Amino acid sequence: MLSAKTNNFILQEAKKLSIPVVAVVDTDTNSNLVSFPIWLNDDSIDLHHDLTIFISSIILQANLTNYGLSILDQ
């Protein structure tokens, strides 16, 4: 997961190449370079972990739905 505070160079390059960016943004971070900011305490490892699990489960469910499956299917 990309933290906007520690990856400013990457954000600048993505902006030049018109690549949309999803990043964790805290109140002490400039969010102008982030296309889709996720406002979160970027110092909390537990929150990063929970957010990563949440996003990956959504992606997994979306991919399974494309094949007519569900996580609940056994």
Name given to the CATH homologous superfamily: Glucose-6-phosphate isomerase like protein, domain 1
Percent of residues in β-strands: 5-15%
Biggest pleated sheet: 2 strands, parallel
Which geometry do the CA atoms define? flat
CATH architecture type = 3-Layer(aba) Sandwich
Mean pLDDT: 81
Would you kindly provide a brief summary of this structure?
The protein has 74 residues and is of the alpha+beta class. The chain is built from two helices and two strands; from the N terminus they run H-E-E-H. Strands 1-2 form a two-stranded parallel ribbon.
If you had to describe this structure to a student in words, what would you say it looks like?
- With 74 residues, this protein is of the alpha+beta class.
- The chain has one domain (8-66): Glucose-6-phosphate isomerase like protein, domain 1 (Rossmann fold).
- It is 42% helix and 11% strand.
- The protein is built from two helices and two strands.
- It has helices at 8-16, 45-66, and strands spanning 22-25, 36-39.
- A two-stranded parallel ribbon has the order 1-2.
- The longest helix has 22 residues, at 45-66.
- The N and C termini lie far apart (31 Å).
- The mean pLDDT is 81.
Tag the structure with descriptive keywords.
74 residues; alpha+beta; two-stranded parallel sheet; 2 helices
